[in-house]
Design a protein that fits this description.
single chain; globular; mainly alpha
Length: 164
């Protein structure tokens, strides 16, 4: 057969990203998700069934974790319950660098994808430079701290601009 231009995990990930970007950006479910993340009390007052919606968010999270588990299985031909632990720090860094507020209510999937690409390039560069694994974690941690500080500074400056 003809091999695809991109590896299958990349194609599957791209399809999942496009589907969820559409759901978050264009559907009522996405608007409700942002509303709950921004202010849960206001979402309740707006008539959103917050408890039910959060359950569905966890269901979708479990579904995407299942997809990741299947992709891991295809790559390594075995499974491990702690397989994703090493990627936890990088995934948090990716969404923070992508502009997602850790306190909720704002962020886009496209930003998280860009953040993941930045983290991937950073990690690959550190490996090429033969940097020790411990220092790689420290560098990623520093990047997260800087991204959160920049995010909070932007929010502070926006509040100052709104009050003027």
């Amino acid at each position: 057969g003809v091999a695809p231009l991109l590896p299958y995990p990349v194609i599957i990930t791209a399809v999942v990203v496009v589907i969820f970007a559409f759901i978050l950006g264009r559907m009522q479910f996405g608007r409700h998700t942002y509303a709950i993340g921004g202010n849960q009390d206001a979402a309740i007052r707006a008539g959103i069934n917050v408890k039910n919606h959060i359950v569905w968010i966890y269901v979708l999270s479990a579904f995407t974790a299942g997809i990741a588990g299947v992709l891991y299985l295809f790559r390594f031909t075995s499974g491990a319950p702690q397989a994703g632990e090493a990627a936890l720090l990088q995934s948090v860094a990716a969404v923070v660098i992508g502009g997602t507020n850790l306190f909720g209510g704002e962020g886009k999937i496209s930003g998280a994808v860009i953040g993941a690409l930045i983290i991937g390039v950073l990690q690959t560069g550190l490996v090429i430079l033969n940097v020790d694994a411990v220092w790689q974690f420290i560098v990623v941690g520093i990047v997260i701290i800087v991204a959160v500080l920049v995010n909070q500074l932007q929010a502070y400056l926006e509040r100052l601009k709104a009050n003027v």
